[in-house]
């Protein structure tokens, strides 16, 4: 896990990489590389190297990333990105019987949106989303809404659905839960979602002057899906 011995997470990782037929492509925004408490390294430690490939960048052209372009054009490739055009992953899994590729964008919501809409390759695969009301276990980082999940949690849920094996999700979540427990024991505070803070009058930062950002906050408070 590359962490100090005192807070080592290796005992919480699977002894052997999980055997899965689904291959993940994690598209990571460069800003995520500098974050200390990242979830993608933990995800990668749970899976074989050929089943979890990480590409860092903002722009992904077909010329510079021919392998990724081939994956995006594969009929069995899915991209996990919620929206009006996305269908529930559970529905796809029922119809799928062959190994698949799943693309997941790793970054803040604004970073992920920028990557998704400014790279034509990512609009080639079938767009899917997770149907879940579960709250994130990643309580040491603020999420936009109560239902937002970290990249590791999204990947764990997606693999569990595609592989039709609930134990996969439990195994991948174990190091994340241990990470949050260690951090809380060493002074970290539980971070409620921005949605929770706004609804309960606990948001203590200045309200944005940007009308678009202000409107997004109003939608959160009024339970409007954004």
Fold topology:
Layout (H helix, E strand, L loop, with lengths): L22 E6 L11 H7 L5 E5 L9 H8 L3 E4 L6 E2 H7 L5 E6 L2 H9 L8 E4 L21 H12 L3 H20 L8 H6 L11 H11 L5
Parallel strand pairs: 1-2, 1-5, 3-5, 3-6, 4-6
What would a concise description of this structure say?
This protein has 8 helices and 6 strands; from the N terminus they run βαβαββαβαβαααα. The protein is of the alpha/beta class and 226 residues long.
- CATH architecture call of the largest domain: 3-Layer(aba) Sandwich
The average pLDDT value, as a whole number, equals 80
CATH third-tier fold name of the largest domain? Alpha/beta knot
Describe the sheet with the most strands: 6 strands, parallel
Give the N-terminus to C-terminus distance in angstroms: 35 Å
Strand content bin? 5-15%
Mass-distribution shape: globular
Q: Level of helix content?
A: 25-40%
Instruction: Summarize the helix and strand pattern as letters.
Output: EHEHEEHEHEHHHH
How many strand units?
6
């Amino acid at each position: 896990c590359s962490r100090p011995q005192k807070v080592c997470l290796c005992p919480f990782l699977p002894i052997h990489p999980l055997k899965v037929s689904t291959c993940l492509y994690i598209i990571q925004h460069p800003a995520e590389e500098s974050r200390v408490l990242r979830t993608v390294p933990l995800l990668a430690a749970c899976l074989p190297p050929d089943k979890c490939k990480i590409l860092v960048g903002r722009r992904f052209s077909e010329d510079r990333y021919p392998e990724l372009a081939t994956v995006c054009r594969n009929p069995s490739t899915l991209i996990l990105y919620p929206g009006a055009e996305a269908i529930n992953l559970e529905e796809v899994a029922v119809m799928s019987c062959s190994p698949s590729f799943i693309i997941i964008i790793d970054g803040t919501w604004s970073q992920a949106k920028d990557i998704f809409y400014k790279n034509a390759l990512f609009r080639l695969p079938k767009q899917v989303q997770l149907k879940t009301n579960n709250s994130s276990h990643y309580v040491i980082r603020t999420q936009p809404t109560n239902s937002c999940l970290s990249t590791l949690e999204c990947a764990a849920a997606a693999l569990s659905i595609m592989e039709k094996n609930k134990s996969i999700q439990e195994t991948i979540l174990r190091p994340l839960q241990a990470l949050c427990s260690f951090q809380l024991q060493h002074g970290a505070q539980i971070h409620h979602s921005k949605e929770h803070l706004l609804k309960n009058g606990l948001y203590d930062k200045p309200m944005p002057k940007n009308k678009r950002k202000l409107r997004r906050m109003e939608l959160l408070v009024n339970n409007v899906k954004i």
